[in-house]
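Session log. Operator J.P. requested a structure for one protein chain; no other inputs attached. Running the standard single-chain path with C-alpha cell output.
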Amino acid sequence: MAALISPSVYAIADAIALGGRSVAAADANVDVIAVGPIYPTRNKKNPEPVVGLELLRRARAMTEKPLVAIGGIDADNLGDVLSAGADTVAVLGAACREPIEESCKRLLGAAEGHR
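Structure written below.
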C-alpha cells in the first residue's frame, strides 16, 4: 500500500493558527506529513517561505504521524532537524553535491546518534 503524503506544510500551520487543533485531525487521510522548507533552498525557482525548526517542533508536538523535513537540509544542520522532531529528511541538494560519495558519507555521519 502506498503512503499518502500531506499536500503541504500549510495544513500544519493552519492547525497551529486554529488554536493547536491536532495535525492528525487536519490530515486524517495521510500517512506522512512533509514539513518545509526548513531552511532556504536552492533547488526550486520559487520556493515556499521558510518555516524553520520552530514549526517543525510544534508539528511534532501535535502529531505522532511521521514527519519528513525538507528544504535546505545538509550535513551541517541535519542533527538540528532530527532533534527538532523530524522522523526523516529529504536531502536532495546535499546528497547530489560533488563529489556525491563524500556528500553522502557526510550526511550519514551527521545522522548517526539521532536514532
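Operator note: The first helix runs from residue 10 to 17.
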